[in-house]
Design goal:
By secondary structure, the protein is α+β, with helices and mostly antiparallel strands. It has one domain: 3-Layer(aba) Sandwich (Aminopeptidase), CATH 3.40.630. 29% of the residues lie in helices and 38% in strands. The protein has four helices and eight strands; from the N terminus they run E-H-H-E-E-E-E-H-E-H-E-E. It is globular. The termini are far apart. It binds coenzyme A (COA). Coenzyme A binds next to strand 5, helix 3 and helix 4. The site of coenzyme A has 19 residues, from strand 5, helix 3 and helix 4.
């Protein structure tokens, strides 16, 4: 299966909001995606597979530190390396844009996501108690920092 990763554009939002609503108990709305397109400090990618949007991920840049805030792959495309292809591109593009450190939160029970983040060098640095709702659950805070020479 060929996977192409490219920047998010407005015409993707309808399809993406559908994927989002099936994947999360508190999904981002179409308006949320539209808002981030208007902010220069937000950078989002989508993965295309079999002519469809298969997933997205992105970050919000805060003075060289980027918060990765939405990683999702449509259920029918999971387990085929799409999240890893998107993250690889996101980290490469972020570093090229001057990001020195990436952080994210993930549900403590989300073993697949934690496995992927660890593969990309993210390390757990703390717990945010009861960070998530529906269901309430703690978040692991993970960081990936670029070595400073
Ligand atoms: C997490 C998610 C983005 C992964 O997407 P994906 O495209 O299926 O991921 P990939 O195929 O690139 O990689 C899956 C990896 O997880 C591993 N994995 C799958 N289930 C696992 C589990 N229960 N425990 C540990 N690792 C697991 C796979 O073996 C694979 O790793 P490998 O390549 O080293 O073998 C997808 O499951 C998803 O959208 N989930 C719902 C939304 C979500 O939880 N997003 C993350 C929010 S922080």
């Amino acid at each position: 299966m060929e996977i192409a990763v490219r920047e998010l554009k407005k015409s993707d939002i309808e399809e993406l909001a559908e994927i989002e609503s099936k994947a999360f108990s508190m999904p981002w709305s179409k308006q949320d995606f539209e808002n981030l397109l208007s902010h220069s400090y937000c950078f989002y990618l989508v993965a295309m597979a079999e002519g469809q949007i298969a997933g997205c991920c992105g970050y919000t840049d805060s003075f060289g530190e980027a918060d990765i805030d939405n990683v999702v792959v449509a259920e029918e495309f999971r387990g085929r390396g799409i999240a890893q292809a998107m993250l690889k591109e996101l980290l490469t593009r972020g570093e090229a844009a001057g990001i020195n450190a990436f952080t994210l939160e993930v549900r403590v029970s989300n073993a697949a996501a934690i496995h992927i983040y660890e593969k990309f060098g993210f390390q757990p640095e703390g717990i945010r108690p009861r960070f998530y709702e529906k269901p309430i659950e703690d978040a692991v805070i993970m960081w990936r920092r670029r070595a400073v020479m």
